[in-house]
Amino acid sequence: MPIHNAEIAAILHEVADLLEIEGENPFRVRAYREAARTVENHPRSLAEMVGKGESLTRLPGIGEDLAGKIREIVRTGTLRQTEELRERVPPGLRSLLGVPGLGPRRVRELHRRLGITSAAELERAAREGRVRRLPGFGEKTERNILEALSRGETPRRFRLASAEPAARALEEHLRGCAAVREVVVAGSFRRRKETVGDLDVVACSHDGRRVVEHFVAFGGVERVVSRGGTRSSVVLKDGLEVDLRVVPEESFGAALLYFTGAQPHHVALRDMALQKKLKLNEYGLFRGEERVAGRTEAEVYGALGLRYIEPELREYRGEIEAASEDALPELLTREDIRGDLHSHTTATDGRNSLEEMARAAEERGYEYLAITDHSRRLRVARGLDERRLREQMEQIDRLNEELEGITLLKGAEVDILEDGSLDLPDGVLRELDVVICSVHHKLRLPEREQTRRVLRALANPNVNILAHPTGRLIGRREPCELDVERVMEAAVERGCILELNANPERLDLNDAHCRLAKEMGVRIAVSTDAHGTNELANIRFGVGQARRGWLEREDVVNTRSLGELRRLLRREGA
DNA sequence: GCCGTTTTCGGCCCGACTGTTTTCAGTCG
């Protein structure tokens, strides 16, 4: 079984943590962290690249040494260096780095002076009052450690959609403060990352203290972690941490840039600034004492010789180079979307009728909506057999005569059976406007079998779209073992479309896959898989993910007019 | 450990807040 990028990255992260606890050169530690990040973000399988003898040193942050280590991991599944480190640094110490307030320095002291190697030992030492006697520690630190341990705090990530209500409520709350001129939730939320660890709020005001006081009075606040004159940090009742920064108007753009990140993106910008003998921080871009930019982000990018870079691109995946060459993509927007190609009704497991779904889509300004109820294999959803599907097709024909602003497309979401055959006969599939196929059971097949299964389904000439290709559920279910690159090759050959499922629990394909699809020339459908009228609005999450994957209007099929779309679905004029 | 129109050595982002401190280290983002 080839090793996954995520597993390689995990090993590199462990090396970084252990080296840090040992007190290694922090830049060396950072090099491992950056390499790990590069690996986990890389759309292609490194194991495969190693197998093909491709060079790894072209990846950012990976030199000869790390390339060799990655090759060792791919070949042996492990790294001798890690094994050696584990003998010197008890692996339990690693988990202590996750305790708020404990960094590598303090963890090392705890180990060296008190022999602590685990959270349980730390708790005991703190209870016995031994921690407070260490230099640099005190009563308060000891108490904070105990509190953090009793909360059992493991940094938890929130799905974008679960953080959104809090983000909107906070924005509104802060706008209610007279001293606030502008407020934006920045960070990974603004980059539309599929999960966020916390919210970073940037407010524009000349009275920081007043804004901070207003901020900590927000109704959802569980506890205040810190509050100063320009910055504060709180934890909300649902456990989400929120950091606020207040800056004056002339710094707002620079602060947004700083707090939107991603960190490597901003570090690279600082680097560019240094090369131009400028200094970039959250207050502006400076030449000596003089502020040359900072009011808006565009101003800062401009002063660095770059085009404005959309937040979703700021992941340090080539966007800075593209901006300097004026080669940035013109990203997909919500307004580009002309219809939804995946939806369900009460005929199976949806909550609204055909007509209700149609009207809701019409209200969104769509030209078309594909009705794609499940096939019979999905028993829990009361999936349709051929007879019931034909009944629905007739209903759609009748309804289309009444509807004026929108057209319903006749479709189905057909289960891919274990052998790769489809759950409805070709005869009826041929009569549909759009055929989606997807895997809903046997998600744990080995990669070879899963890939063969999906490839066989795509070989059916009636199939248009492969829905939620990897089957992952964010935070709940890992993606299935699937050779996504092979599937994409097949999709290109056969004119099939891959779905970017916009359900915020799925967002499948992920951003890296979208980027790969674009590079390989695979067409994408951004679809909500709505099981009710209220879910059609989930399209915004799909658009965000598409933008993170550098997708443009041309790459996405449901930006086409109905006529163009119909031609595409007949696989003509590809 | 990486990286390079300030190159193969010597840099590597930087400011706020907290707690333990009499001037600052550690942590965090």
TrEMBL record:
Keyword Transit peptide: no
Polymerase/histidinol phosphatase N-terminal domain location: 339-418
Coiled coil: 382-409
UniProt GO molecular function: class I DNA-(apurinic or apyrimidinic site) endonuclease activity; DNA binding; DNA-directed DNA polymerase activity; exonuclease activity; phosphoric ester hydrolase activity; zinc ion binding
Cofactor: Mg(2+)
GO biological process: DNA repair
EC number(s) stated in the UniProt entry for this protein: 2.7.7.7, 4.2.99.18
Keywords from the named record: Coiled coil, DNA damage, DNA repair, DNA replication, DNA synthesis, DNA-directed DNA polymerase, Exonuclease, Hydrolase, Methylation, Nuclease, Nucleotidyltransferase, Sodium, Transferase, Ubl conjugation
Localisation: Cytoplasm
Nuclease in keyword set: yes
Protein name: DNA polymerase beta
Highest classification ranks of the organism: Bacteria, Bacillati, Actinomycetota, Rubrobacteria, Rubrobacterales
